[in-house]
């Protein structure tokens, strides 16, 4: 018995024999007290009967039972989920919203990935910025190397926009490594697939804005997607961004013209490259085409469901053509990739969490985060932790915060309601020093900044702050709410998941994937 155990036991015995002499305490042993008062090591039964106590014990046992496979290459498959802009405050608020949508108070709920056995924190700064952008952060995730803001999968010593320098300093991505091992690969996003986060997986440019055009000597992002030389190219790609694949003289089914000034029709080029009579390459651009995809006979799948970014989850059904959900795209993508017995790498991005925050609109950001968790749940339910590493993280955070002492279960998108002095009964809206109500969620900056005629805050008494189009109050007036610089979370399950712990640099996650998946020699 260790000294600590002896001390605890002696203290417990002393507690049981208050009022006894020293001789009595040493000779009598534990006193006979009611079980309701004392249990093992002095814990009262009311403590051990608490559902919090029991659930904590169960969680410990579940974590302890998780198998850890430390063998390099044990992960035949890797899925990287990236919630763009999904900082810790977004996860917390989305958790509460999802719980409240299910009739719960919300705080006790867990999003799918929060039930994964391993988690940690990730530092997100770029090499030249304290608060990062998505191009530099995603480059770190998929190449193992941090770089500047605004550049995609090129080294940090390349100046932003320097075409010639970027040609000499490319970085190999995790998709290229997977393709070299004959694995299938896929990218899925609710943003344009030429946007920074998905583009970093395959394109190498010193300017993230080169989606449909680039200076002479360099290729734009969409063109690089079609011409990717690694393996047999990306097998599954779904998201928005159709306009970057179409020439300017072509009008698509949404009535929007293409953005390509070079006259190239990259969708046709993609079909010509992969639809060679041996490979069955399917292109779809609406819900009907998506639902008609025959997985068994499809080898390559390209889905471009919107000229620009796909719709927010809250707006997804508001068009005639229709768009699949992120969970539906994840399901179809996984089914196709799982046909490869050599395994696969899949990146899934919830890109519009970020855009909802930039608009100062927590409703759209959080509903997209909830939809993101549903896509992750599908992957968790339809893969094995024995051979599939799933990592969930964010590229950066946002400046949304949760504050104001709202009562338990108060609508996360609502105005703050406080408790009475006993801490039990709900009272009216809590009022700020200016005598006006305020919301639980606010932004440090953004388009939600407003003032009345006298420079004071707007009166929210009659405002429905849970409405789809409501913009939360912002302290500093800016045209677009900004990213934040604090660490983001990371959660993991499967072979190598135990390496995801502590606080690490963002590029570390690439090395976890590469080691667990046998993509590099370690």
Automatic annotation (TrEMBL):
Record keywords, A-Z: Phosphoprotein
Superkingdom in the source lineage: Bacteria
Gene3D superfamilies registered for this protein in UniProt: Alkaline Phosphatase, subunit A
Alphabetical list of CDD domains matching this protein: ALP
Keyword Cell cycle tagged: no
InterPro entries in the record: Alkaline_phosphatase, Alkaline_phosphatase_core_sf
Keyword rRNA-binding attributed: no
Family to which this protein belongs: Belongs to the alkaline phosphatase family.
Stated name of the protein: Alkaline phosphatase
């Amino acid at each position: 018995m260790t000294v600590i155990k002896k001390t605890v036991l002696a203290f417990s015995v002393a507690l049981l024999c208050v009022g006894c002499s020293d001789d009595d305490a040493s000779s009598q042993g534990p006193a006979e007290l009611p079980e309701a008062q004392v249990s093992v090591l002095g814990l009262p039964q009311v403590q051990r009967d608490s559902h919090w106590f029991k659930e904590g014990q169960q969680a410990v046992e579940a974590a302890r039972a998780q198998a850890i496979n430390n063998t390099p290459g044990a992960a035949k498959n890797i899925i990287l989920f990236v919630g763009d802009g999904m900082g810790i405050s977004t996860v917390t608020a989305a958790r509460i919203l999802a719980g409240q949508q299910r009739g719960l108070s919300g705080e006790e709920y867990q999003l799918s990935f929060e039930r994964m056995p391993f988690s940690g924190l990730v530092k997100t700064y770029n090499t030249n910025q304290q608060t990062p952008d998505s191009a530099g952060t995603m480059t770190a995730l998929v190449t193992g190397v941090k770089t500047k803001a605004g550049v995609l999968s090129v080294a940090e010593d390349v100046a932003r926009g320097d075409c010639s320098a970027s040609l000499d300093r490319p970085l190999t991505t995790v998709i290229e490594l997977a393709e070299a091992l004959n694995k299938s690969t896929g990218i899925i996003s609710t943003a344009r697939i030429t946007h920074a986060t998905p583009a970093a997986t395959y394109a190498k440019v010193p300017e993230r804005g080169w989606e449909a055009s680039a200076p002479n000597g360099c290729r734009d992002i969409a063109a690089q997607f079609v011409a990717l030389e690694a393996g047999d190219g990306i097998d599954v790609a779904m998201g928005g961004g159709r306009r970057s694949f179409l020439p300017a003289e072509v009008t698509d089914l949404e009535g929007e013209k293409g953005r390509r000034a070079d006259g190239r029709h990259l969708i046709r080029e993609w079909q010509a490259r992969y639809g060679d009579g041996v490979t069955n390459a399917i292109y779809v651009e609406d819900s009907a085409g998506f639902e008609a995809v025959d997985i068994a006979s499809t080898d390559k799948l390209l889905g471009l469901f919107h000229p620009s970014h796909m719709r927010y989850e809250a707006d997804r059904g508001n068009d005639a053509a229709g768009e699949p959900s992120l969970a539906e795209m994840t399901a179809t993508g996984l089914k196709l990739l799982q046909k490869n017995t050599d395994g696969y790498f899949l990146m899934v991005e919830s890109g519009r969490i970020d855009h909802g925050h930039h608009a100062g609109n927590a409703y759209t950001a959080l509903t997209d985060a909830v939809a993101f968790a549903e896509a992750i749940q599908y992957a968790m339910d339809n893969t094995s932790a024995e051979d599939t590493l799933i990592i969930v993280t964010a590229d950066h955070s946002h400046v949304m915060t949760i504050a104001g002492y709202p009562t338990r279960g108060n609508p996360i998108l609502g105005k703050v309601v406080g408790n009475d002095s006993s801490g039990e009964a709900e009272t009216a809206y809590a009022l700020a020093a200016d005598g006006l109500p305020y919301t639980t969620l606010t932004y440090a900056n953004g388009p939600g900044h407003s003032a009345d005629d006298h420079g004071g805050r707007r009166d929210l008494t009659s405002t429905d702050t849970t409405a789809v189009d409501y913009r939360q109050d912002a302290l500093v007036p800016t045209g677009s709410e900004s990213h934040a610089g604090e660490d983001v979370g990371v959660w993991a399950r499967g072979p190598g998941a135990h390496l995801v712990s502590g606080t690490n640099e963002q590029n570390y996650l690439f090395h976890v994937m590469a080691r667990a998946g046998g993509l590099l020699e370690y």
